[in-house]
Write a structure and sequence with these properties.
- The protein is α/β, with parallel strands linked by helices.
- It has a single domain (about 10-350), classed as Thiamin diphosphate (ThDP)-binding fold, Pyr/PP domains (Rossmann fold, 3-Layer(aba) Sandwich).
- About 40% of the residues lie in helices and about 10% in strands.
- The chain contains 12 helices and 8 strands.
- It has helices spanning about 30-55, 70-75, 90-95, 100-110, 145-155, 175-185, 215-220, 235-250, 280-290, 290-300, 310-330, 345-350; strands spanning about 85, 130-135, 160-165, 190-195, 200, 205, 225-230, 255-260.
- The strands form 2 sheets. The protein has a 6-stranded parallel beta sheet with strand order 2-1-3-4-8-7, sandwiched between helices.
- The mean pLDDT is about 95.
- It binds thiamine diphosphate (TPP).
- Thiamine diphosphate (TPP) binds next to strand 3 and strand 5.
């Protein structure tokens, strides 16, 4: 691949991939589970968008609706002792690991029952029991941490892997290149997952990089890599299975570039069709038609493995979970003022279980 122009080809074309997915020999039971998880992520984020719009959430929320297939396809191959890291847009990464909606909502509301005890909000999520070692808003900030966690896992001979999710904007940070180099030299069991949604804040990748394919950085570092349609959960899981297996067997890091698109703007509920240079209403509509959930549901229906009735029932069940989790989080207490420095300094942390 030459590092020039639109190296992603049709994968970056909003008009590409509107039809049902090709399911191959993926077991239908697994696909139904993935559909359910994607719906859970989508509906939780849509709920957060509305609550933010209506002024019920004080801090910003970076939503990844439209990108659900990436985290769900990758998480398929992870276990609770693996170490997963995210960034500012990480609701999907957490929920795909089975994260609690109540813990997420309470965190977003700044409540003591939140995943980070209400101290961080949407961009500081942590759920170590489920393997989510944390997200922070410093772009690319957790990528080197994932390499370190992978090395620690190898030193402990656990067979665990680490995963670093980051965006196409994050590859512009020098620390990502250092992390790729170190991981390759030390054969760290880490999977780098780039969710290439073509934008960094409001700027299209064509205005920031000489190629729209970030997989070229893996090739430069001699790291095994795959490039997939990130709105095709079958493709994502196939590539992730190979790359996670490669890392788990001690053969070195992997790099997965998943091309996708976020339905909401950079932050909060707006569309951002009026601020971006290349984010047009037509593009957004096309990408919405390339819906990872709709495409999987259509394919399962065509195969006789899903129905409108099942879809409705799944939606109702998740709606109930969201309503209950939200009401609980709203009713929960805020942290005590004297807890402000807990978990910042070791001595204070020791004093508070
Ligand atoms: C080190 C650093 N630089 C800049 C920012 C401001 N910032 C927050 S999100 C963002 C865009 C990141 O784009 P990308 O990595 O592609 O992720 P996406 O938002 O598309 O999911 C920027 C520039 C930041 N938070 N941290």
């Amino acid at each position: 691949m030459t590092a020039s122009g639109a190296a992603l080809g049709p994968l970056a074309d909003p008009a590409y991939g509107h039809g049902p997915l090709s399911l191959g020999d993926t077991p239908p039971e697994r696909l139904r589970g993935q559909l359910h998880t994607m719906l859970r992520i989508r509906m939780a984020e849509q709920h957060l968008a509305l609550m933010r719009r209506d002024g019920l959430i004080g801090g910003p929320v970076h939503l990844g609706a439209g990108q659900e297939a990436v985290a769900v396809g990758v998480s398929q191959w992870l276990r609770g002792t693996d170490r997963v890291f995210g960034g500012h847009r990480s609701h999907s990464h957490l929920i795909a690991l089975g994260g609690s909606l109540h813990g997420l909502f309470a965190e977003v509301l700044g409540k003591d029952t939140g995943l980070s005890r209400g101290m961080g909000g949407s961009m500081h999520l942590w759920d170590q029991p489920r393997g989510f070692y944390g997200s922070v808003p410093i772009v690319a900030g957790t990528v080197p941490l994932a390499v370190g966690a992978a090395l620690a896992a190898r030193m402990q001979s656990t067979g665990d892997v680490a995963v670093a999710y980051f965006g196409d904007g994050a590859v512009e940070e020098g620390v990502v290149q250092e992390s790729l180099n170190l991981a390759r030299m030390l054969k760290a069991p880490v999977l780098f997952v780039v969710e290439n949604n073509l934008f960094s804040s409001h700027m299209h990748i064509s205005l920031r990089q000489p190629s729209n394919a970030t997989v070229r950085f893996a090739q430069a570092h001699d790291i095994r890599a795959e490039l997939v349609d990130g709105n095709d959960v079958v493709a994502v899981q196939g590539a992730a299975e190979r790359l996670v297996g490669h890392a788990r067997r001690g053969e070195g890091p992997g790099f997965l570039e998943a091309v996708t698109y976020r339905w909401y703007g950079h932050v909060d509920w707006r569309d951002d069709v009026d601020v971006g240079v290349n984010r047009s209403i037509a593009d957004l509509e096309n990408w919405r038609a390339r819906d990872p959930i709709g495409r999987l549901a259509a394919a399962l229906k065509a195969a006789g493995e899903w129905s409108d009735g099942r879809h409705e029932a799944a939606t109702m069940e998740i709606r109930g979970e969201i309503d209950q989790a939200w009401q609980q989080a709203v009713a929960d207490p805020y942290p005590a003022p004297e807890a402000l420095l807990d978990r910042v300094y070791a001595a204070r942390r020791a004093a508070r279980p």
